[in-house]
Amino acid sequence: MVKDADMNRAMQEDAVYIAANAIDEHNTEQEIARYIKIQFDHKHKPYWHCIVGGTFSSNVTMRFQLLRNHEKQNV
């Protein structure tokens, strides 16, 4: 069940399918998360984060680099 997502419907269905397979094929939360991340990196292009568990903490740092190119056009 997907409660809330900003993915399109096909990607949501794929996520549910991949997660179900991960749970069936792996025993630990770490293995499940790794499987889901690898599948999503491959199918939906990198880079994905996957966190699995009932009680956990996380600390994620991201760095964005942005290049803007503005051209002035005579109108």
UniProtKB/TrEMBL annotation:
<keyword id="KW-0539">Nucleus</keyword>
<keyword id="KW-0963">Cytoplasm</keyword>
<keyword id="KW-0493">Microtubule</keyword>
<dbReference type="GO" id="GO:0051028">
    <property type="term" value="P:mRNA transport"/>
</dbReference>
<dbReference type="GO" id="GO:0015031">
    <property type="term" value="P:protein transport"/>
</dbReference>
<dbReference type="Pfam" id="PF01221">
    <property type="entry name" value="Dynein_light"/>
</dbReference>
<dbReference type="InterPro" id="IPR037177">
    <property type="entry name" value="DLC_sf"/>
</dbReference>
<dbReference type="GO" id="GO:0005874">
    <property type="term" value="C:microtubule"/>
</dbReference>
<protein>
    <recommendedName>
        <fullName>Dynein light chain</fullName>
    </recommendedName>
</protein>
<keyword id="KW-0813">Transport</keyword>
<keyword id="KW-0206">Cytoskeleton</keyword>
<keyword id="KW-0243">Dynein</keyword>
<dbReference type="GO" id="GO:0005868">
    <property type="term" value="C:cytoplasmic dynein complex"/>
</dbReference>
<keyword id="KW-0509">mRNA transport</keyword>
<dbReference type="InterPro" id="IPR001372">
    <property type="entry name" value="Dynein_light_chain_typ-1/2"/>
</dbReference>
<dbReference type="GO" id="GO:0007017">
    <property type="term" value="P:microtubule-based process"/>
</dbReference>
<dbReference type="GO" id="GO:0005634">
    <property type="term" value="C:nucleus"/>
</dbReference>
<comment type="similarity">
    <text>Belongs to the dynein light chain family.</text>
</comment>
<keyword id="KW-0505">Motor protein</keyword>
<keyword id="KW-0653">Protein transport</keyword>
<dbReference type="GO" id="GO:0045505">
    <property type="term" value="F:dynein intermediate chain binding"/>
</dbReference>
